[in-house]
Amino acid sequence: MSRTTMMIDTGLPTGLFTDVIASHGELVGLVKFGWGTALVTRELHRKIAVLREAGIGFYFGGTLFEWYLVQDRVDDYLALVERTGATHVEVSNGTIPLDQQGKAEWVRRMSRYRPVLAEVGYKDAERSARLSPADWAGAIREDLDAGAELVITETRESGRSGMATPDGHLRDDVLRAVLARIDAGRLLFEAPTKDLQVELIRALGPDVNLGNIAPADLVGVETLRRGLRGDTLLQLTPVAVPA
Amino acid sequence: MSRTTMMIDTGLPTGLFTDVIASHGELVGLVKFGWGTALVTRELHRKIAVLREAGIGFYFGGTLFEWYLVQDRVDDYLALVERTGATHVEVSNGTIPLDQQGKAEWVRRMSRYRPVLAEVGYKDAERSARLSPADWAGAIREDLDAGAELVITETRESGRSGMATPDGHLRDDVLRAVLARIDAGRLLFEAPTKDLQVELIRALGPDVNLGNIAPADLVGVETLRRGLRGDTLLQLTPVAVPA
Amino acid sequence: MSRTTMMIDTGLPTGLFTDVIASHGELVGLVKFGWGTALVTRELHRKIAVLREAGIGFYFGGTLFEWYLVQDRVDDYLALVERTGATHVEVSNGTIPLDQQGKAEWVRRMSRYRPVLAEVGYKDAERSARLSPADWAGAIREDLDAGAELVITETRESGRSGMATPDGHLRDDVLRAVLARIDAGRLLFEAPTKDLQVELIRALGPDVNLGNIAPADLVGVETLRRGLRGDTLLQLTPVAVPA
């Protein structure tokens, strides 16, 4: 699962969702129904039918797992996964008080049911900022060892917390520490802003797995991957003429 | 009219507008055709037909009222309201030189024709900032006494003026002063950004009336109201397990 | 070609693109398929058919020209223009190392094939900032003399470089120097943000040519041109009543 682009659906109307997949589905590796939006989407079954026909996997945001967990209703969550045919499960502790060890235990349990995408990082910017580079690398290692298929690095929808700095750039120190221990192919980087997309493609190459990509940015991200936008053109294009 | 979500249409194409109402119409309490967009929307009649079928009320932005008023053409405005079947009228003085007393007089006059949504606050950030908490509360009280059904608190589409600070947060002092005198059910808070939506739901609960919600944010706002997003999950969700 | 609004398509799905043109096509003078997006748009032919039927011209972003040029493949670029029926060609040096004189030479060459839109300004903010007002005016003059039909002033999609300052406002000194030498009707100002749209309409009047307008902003820009939004209402509306 390399060069995966994970599209986030934050509540598209059904017709537009269908249009996006019909037009750009070949650019989409996975769809996440962001946080708990699935529970307030009346026509979720129609969106799922569209994805099934296109052969695209999907799952629910980690916040939905946390919402069920904090209410001691994980069975209901698993019933939802079963009923909808979600292809993956995200396990995270971005919001609720669940420590890394507890989360890794849930990664282990949930991977009996579906391939698990584990998330590292907190939604709260200050809490994330207190994670040292070694903390990040250790948590990712632990989640993979617990059976996660991929580990997602949190940056929120704003691209300004988690593995991003408050001004929207990658935390280089974290990135270096993580890559020293983990194969980039096992990571899915949340990159909701162009700044983060550009920095990750420049640092890790065009095949880096990118997540939280807005439907409106699918084509833009693909142009960045192919050097067809100013930001990566000179890095990725074979130059044939002397300048 | 509590827990009203007012969606702003800033110029959606007709197909997408129809798609939004078909998919998420049950989340929409009122639609505002923002400022004077109605006059440059060729297929306004089709949008209106969609709303009528869904049983959703609609009105034109206060700026359109001001545009007619400043040209001494209020009769033309009323003819437009009549012709289109707008269910409400917004009366504001956000742009034109019309003082609070003059606006309240227009609230009184217009409420002969339609339920009036009166707006308090100016589009100009500095002018709004000069309104003291007592000014805000007094103006709202005056508009309600003049017959307004609801009073809208201005923050612009950017969420950075009116009742919001230049960095996009609620003016707490204003909010406190207003709530000391006015029932929150008579207020419709413009909350175009997630920050403002979160702050208002945290301060006033999930049933607060929210306005200037973008079509793309309808589902997101509903998840905030239900504690299905990280920002309000721990505040609004009954916790069943020890953390 | 005055009062031209150039809409940028950064990768709309096909259905939405069709919807935008059907609903608001009369507001669109030209469509630019931004940077190299055309090469990753599977259904480009369907979008082009929509534009042809509506009688709207279109072209590919200057970055695509640069991408071909830097690979010494301008013939392939011309073949693409021919095959798709693009009505214009953009010639720019926003990303690749090509000096003003070299660019003007390409303006001359490409205008044998299509009317040329030449672009002045660099994507890199610092590089653009080093262009003096006289540099801007001189480069625009040179491109027009080389045969460009219009000259586009770069501000990027963010509206924060090129002829815009890093905080998103117009560079007044540049604007003054340019207008002293060039007729505004020969300029197409990139104005992707409302701030820039408002500043340009206030400075140059409602008929200023505006570019990089997002599909979602077409109606909004038209209301600014007609004084139907707070930002330009008092400037552009004949006031009939004493305030």
TrEMBL record, chains A, B, C:
User: InterPro entries per the record?
Assistant: Aldolase_TIM, ComA_synth, ComA_synth_sf
User: Coiled coil located at which positions?
Assistant: none
**Protein family per UniProt:** Belongs to the phosphosulfolactate synthase family.
The name on file for this protein is Phosphosulfolactate synthase
* Organism expressing this protein natively: Amycolatopsis dongchuanensis
Q: What is the lineage of its organism?
A: Bacteria, Bacillati, Actinomycetota, Actinomycetes, Pseudonocardiales
